[in-house]
């Protein structure tokens, strides 16, 4: 049986899903892409206005209905609460860092005063404002080509994108600056894919399990636990970044931040813990943020 892989129709989405198709074929399972149009593909309003999960719910609906056998999501777009209808597998993560694509090869520090930078993500807006309060941040939606095209056309001086997306479509050379997490922290689970199938589809569960990458899975779980504990959606000004000890992989370091949208205040905490118990570490860092007043910043979305 040929597995139908549900995916959004954008270049990035089909490229991501295509890598999963190719990996499944490598393991002896024939697979093909099945394009699904989601509300987020036709509504260009900011994501926080049209709803958390706007990119994932339509894929989950067709998966549950049996119209496809597998769904491929960007993990950062998934609601943090587990859905018992589905079996989740997380393959190897791409580079999770943030990237600037600016005119004339400029870096963030080199952008002129009052430069126009495109992004609709509150997490990016708040961190950019903290570094460069003079910038004019403008809403940005659309696929990668559309977003970068606003720089090429001169409409914007720069845009902010996930570096993982650029690398997956072979456009990493367009980045004029890539930020380490201690400069601009990425979204929880940024760069990770979430592959789902129906939990009762034992044959497909077995096939997807061959794609699981344990280190990526526990890192993403730790980061998303922070988001869940803060009761914040994927569009909230919350960032998180987990790393595992390079030698043994037993120790995880998790850093997470909550930011005022105007860049005037930020709370950032880190902790180390057992890499095999990512939820506990996520809970610990989230509690540090809560104790420091994260709710006040999350409530300030004006």
Structural descriptors:
single chain, 302 residues, alpha/beta, D-Maltodextrin-Binding Protein, domain 2, Double Stranded RNA Binding Domain, 3 domains, five-stranded mixed β-sheet, 23% strand, globular
Describe this structure in words.
The chain has about 300 residues and is an alpha/beta fold. It folds into three domains: about 5-90 and about 190-210, D-Maltodextrin-Binding Protein, domain 2 (3-Layer(aba) Sandwich), CATH 3.40.190.10; about 100-180, D-Maltodextrin-Binding Protein, domain 2, CATH 3.40.190.10; about 220-300, Double Stranded RNA Binding Domain. The chain is built from eleven helices and 13 strands. The protein has a five-stranded mixed beta sheet, sandwiched between helices. The protein has a five-stranded mixed beta sheet with strand order 7-6-8-5-9, sandwiched between helices. The longest helix has 16 residues, at about 10-25. The protein is globular and about 60 Å long. The model has no long low-confidence stretch (mean pLDDT about 90).
Q: What's the short version?
A:
This protein is an alpha/beta fold.
Strands, helices and their partners?
Layout: E1 3-7, H1 11-26, E2 31-35, H2 39-42, H3 47-50, H4 57-64, E3 70-74, E4 86-89, E5 98-102, E6 116-118, H5 122-131, E7 136-138, H6 144-152, E8 158-162, H7 163-168, E9 177-179, E10 193-198, H8 202-209, H9 214-229, E11 238-244, E12 251-259, E13 266-274, H10 278-291, H11 294-299
Parallel strand pairs: 1-2, 1-3, 6-7, 6-8
Antiparallel strand pairs: 3-10, 4-10, 5-8, 5-9, 11-12, 12-13
């Amino acid at each position: 049986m040929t597995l139908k892989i549900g995916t959004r129709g954008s270049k990035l989405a089909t490229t991501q899903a295509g890598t999963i198709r190719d990996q499944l074929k490598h393991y002896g399972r024939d697979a093909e892409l099945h394009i699904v149009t989601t509300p987020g593909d036709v509504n260009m309003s900011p994501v926080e206005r049209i709803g958390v999960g706007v990119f994932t719910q339509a894929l989950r609906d067709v998966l549950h209905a049996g119209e496809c056998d597998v769904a491929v999501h960007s993990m950062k777009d998934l609601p943090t609460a587990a859905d018992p209808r589905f079996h989740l597998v997380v393959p190897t993560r791409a580079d999770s860092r943030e990237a600037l694509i600016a005119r004339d090869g400029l870096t963030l520090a080199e952008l002129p005063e009052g430069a126009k930078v495109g992004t609709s993500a509150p997490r990016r807006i708040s961190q950019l404002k903290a570094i460069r309060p003079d910038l004019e941040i403008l809403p940005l939606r659309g696929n990668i080509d559309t977003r970068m095209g606003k720089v090429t056309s001169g409409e914007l001086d720069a845009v902010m994108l996930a570096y993982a997306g650029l690398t997956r479509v072979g456009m990493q050379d367009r980045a004029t600056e890539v930020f380490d997490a201690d400069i601009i922290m990425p979204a929880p689970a940024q760069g990770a894919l979430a592959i789902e199938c129906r939990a009762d589809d034992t044959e497909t569960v077995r096939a997807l399990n061959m794609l699981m990458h344990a280190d990526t899975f526990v890192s993403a779980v730790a980061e998303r636990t922070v988001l869940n504990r803060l009761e914040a959606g994927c569009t909230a000004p919350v960032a998180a970044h987990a790393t595992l000890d390079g030698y043994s992989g037993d120790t995880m370091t998790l850093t997470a931040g909550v930011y005022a949208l105007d860049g005037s205040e930020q709370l950032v905490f880190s902790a180390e813990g057992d890499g095999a118990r990512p939820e506990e570490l996520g809970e610990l860092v989230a509690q540090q943020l809560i104790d420091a007043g994260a709710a006040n910043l999350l409530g300030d979305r004006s």
